[in-house]
Amino acid sequence: MTTSTQSSFVRHAISRRTFLRGAGVSLALPWLESLPVRAADTGKIASAPAALSKPPVRFACLYFSNGVEPIHWWAKGSGADMEIGPGLKPMEPFREDMIFLRGLYNQQAAAHRSPHLGRIPNLLSGAWVSTEQSDIRVGKTMDQVMAREIGGQTPVPSLILGIEPTELRLEDGLSMLYGSCISWAGDTKPAMKEIYPARVFDLLVGDGKGRQLDRSILDQVLEDAKILKGKVGRADRGKLEEYFESIRDVETRIERASREERLEGWRPSLAKPDMARPADQLPQIVPDHMKLMLDLIVLAFQMDKTRIVTCMLNNDLSQMNFGFLEGVQGSLHLDLTHNGRDPKREAMYLKTNQFHTEQFAYLIARMKEIDEGGSSLLDNSMLMFCSNLFDGDRHQADHMPILLAGRGGGTLKPGRILDYMDDGDDNRRACSLYLSLMDRMGVTLPQFGDANRRLANI
Fold first, then answer.
1. How far is CA 353 from CA 87, 195, 336, 347, in A?
2. CA distance 105 to 389
3. Does 220 have pLDDT greater than 70?
4. How far apart are CA 202 and CA 194, in angstroms?
5. What pLDDT is recorded for position 212?
């Protein structure tokens, strides 16, 4: 791989060094003098050989709706001696792998008049949610910011997954699009989630029905290339032609190296899927459905098909029935969370909290056992488990339940509790956490959402 090509994988500015996009792929282009420059273009480029010699950092957000039972959601101490509340019981084996975060929240969410739909779509953006029925508007979320900046390094820029379908009805005068989407590609455009495991598998592996995997990337972006050629100067047109030829050479080398089971630099630990293609039909058993989606996240990360994932275990105002859990009968999730402190329903609410936490623990366990050359897939990832509300019964949005797991490629120290409740509002912004996480993914911004500083001590 040439130095210019390696640099394209680690460059974050995208004006002069821009991207051609087509058919679901992104191709980084060389520095073009004809295109406008911006301040970000003067930033430093990471060392390509170093960046390519070790596993990349991955990020996944696992969301559960309607908050937690507060008296059961707590942690004390650190490391193997950390004590955790009943709601976190499935995390017992993974206390040294997690960071328990307390006190972070989104100010715009807490101030919103809608107790639900004003407090979920801005989970990953901190933006204000429009109250006009005719104006669906939130803000671009941190996962999609990263997908835009670094998504071109993988075949799939980001995975947006869910279990329950996207709803279009109105609730409290607002669209349930707000309650069905935590990933937003733009202020007015939700990044629609995929709930069919088979379709996710096909996106990652290819089934012959969609994009032909053996087609040249250049052929897929040819139309955009023609448009771009008409906008750049003569010298840059020559530079583009030379670049296209070098990419064709790289494609040939990579194809040959793949046949020999050899690649330059870091290589994914899995070349072919180690799970069967799921059935075409939507799974009807909730635990089976969730497990399949979590397995697909692991597959995507292990094969380096994407490095950015969001997954909604359920929608806000969820109609999911948890009757599959022992002792949970006759109530939808929404009813259990809005329980009026009824002891019987509180006990069932705890069981749903534990079930959600069990899904996060399953993902951790899977990733922890996968070796990537002396470090695990979990070591090279950042997993965030969260909800938009704390006490679901009270619609409490002045702090959010958040767990982090993984080491972020050695940049995070788990086994800790980070409590920001008494630090003042400016130090309690969830978007400060997102800035810190994006840094570790190689996306550095001066500000995001309502934050212009990184989270202290993370």
1. 6, 21, 11, 10
2. 9
3. no
4. 12
5. 43
From 7, 274, 438, select the one nearest 454 (Cα to Cα).
438
Is residue 403 within 8 A of residue 384, CB to CB? The reply is yes
Q: Tell me if 424 sits within 8 A of 453, measured CB to CB.
A: no
Per-residue pLDDT of 363-386, as tens digits, reads 999 999 999 989 999 999 999 999
Q: Is the Cβ–Cβ distance between 282 and 317 less than 8 Å?
A: no
Q: What pLDDT, on the 0 to 100 scale, is given for residue 282?
A: 94
Tokens of 125: 């953006």
The residues of the chain that CATH labels 3.40.720 are 58-207+284-458
On average, the pLDDT of the chain sits at 82
Which residues touch 281 (CB under 8 Å, ≥6 apart)?
none
The CA–CA distances, whole Å, from 428 to 18, 246, 395 equal 35, 48, 19
Say how many C-beta atoms besides its own lie within 10 A of residue 210's C-beta.
12
Tokens of 264: 């330059």
**CATH code, 58-207+284-458:** 3.40.720
Which of 426, 10, 5 has the alpha carbon at shortest distance from 217? 5
- 316 contacts 115 by C-beta, under 8 angstroms: no
Lowest mean pLDDT among 167-171, 216-220, 308-312: 216-220
Q: Based on C-alpha coordinates, what's the Rg of the chain?
A: 22
Question: What is the tens place of the pLDDT at every residue in 274-315?
Answer: 999 999 999 999 999 999 999 999 999 999 999 999 999 999
| Token couple for 201 | 């598998």
